[in-house]
Amino acid sequence: MTPERFTATRDRSWGIRPVGEPEPAGQPRGFGGMWWCWIPLRFETFALHLILEEDPVGLRNTNFAVRLWPAATGRPVEQLGWPLPEIRYESGTRRPTHATIELTGRDGTSSTLEIDPVLGIPLNVGCGYGADPDWTHGVWKGEAWVEGSVYDHQDPAVSGRGAFSITDHLARATFDGEVGWGIFEHGSIGRHDPSGFADLGSVAP
């Protein structure tokens, strides 16, 4: 990595969320499952941003897919319709090994986004996200709080947590003849019928 040759993403979506000190418990409700993708990707001449969420039967409740061009081009944001994803998982796990996503422009033109995850970081292991037992986003730790932690992902106690987490993957992608890099954030936890996962313990064949 050099100053003139690197790319990065920043999640600017955080605002007031139900995190930090918990609210009083309400009526208990069961967890059926969730399927999630947050995918910001940077290419040489454009960027892509996708956000997809589905319930256990595959009903999509969040759908966002756009291509963004540099401001200097004057080109407007391009909507890319209703993405159709196909994700392959490592056998015996829910770790994604490849994703193919069909994207359709407003003019009906279809293009294929190919994503290869390189390295993943479970967000509930030291990142304060989801069911991380060590700390939670929004918890007040005092002035000038600084803390570091080391985790051994070969430890079953750690890897077991990661299996039930949204995971951020450094990813290589190809789209419209260009190669790009970014984040493939994915979680498939519990039942998700389109993926063939029947319950919390289901894994890829």
Structure characterization notes:
This protein has one helix and nine strands; from the N terminus they run βββββββαββ. The protein is globular, with a radius of gyration of 18 Å. A hairpin with a 4-residue loop joins strand 1 and strand 2. The chain starts with 32 loop residues before the first strand and ends in a 15-residue tail after the last strand. With 205 residues, it is mostly beta strands. Strands 4-3-2-1-9-8-7-6-5 form a nine-stranded antiparallel sheet, with no helix packed on it. Helices cover 3% and strands 39% of the residues. The model has no long low-confidence stretch (mean pLDDT 89). The protein folds into two domains: 124 residues; 34 residues, no CATH class.
What is the overall pLDDT average? 89
* Strand segment count: 9
Helix/strand/pairing category: mainly beta
Main sheet summary? 9 strands, antiparallel
**Gyration radius from CA atoms, angstroms:** 18 Å
- Tell me, briefly, the overall form: globular
SS summary, helix count? 1
Q: In order across it, which strands form the biggest sheet?
A: 4-3-2-1-9-8-7-6-5
State the share of residues found in helices, binned by percent: under 10%
What's the SSE pattern?
A: EEEEEEEHEE
Poorly predicted sequence stretches spanning 5 or more consecutive residues: none
Report how far apart the termini are: 37 Å
Number of domains: 2
Q: Strand share of the residues?
A: 35-45%
In short:
The chain is mostly beta strands and 205 residues long.
Give the key terms.
205 residues; mainly beta; 2 domains; 9-stranded antiparallel beta sheet; 1 helix
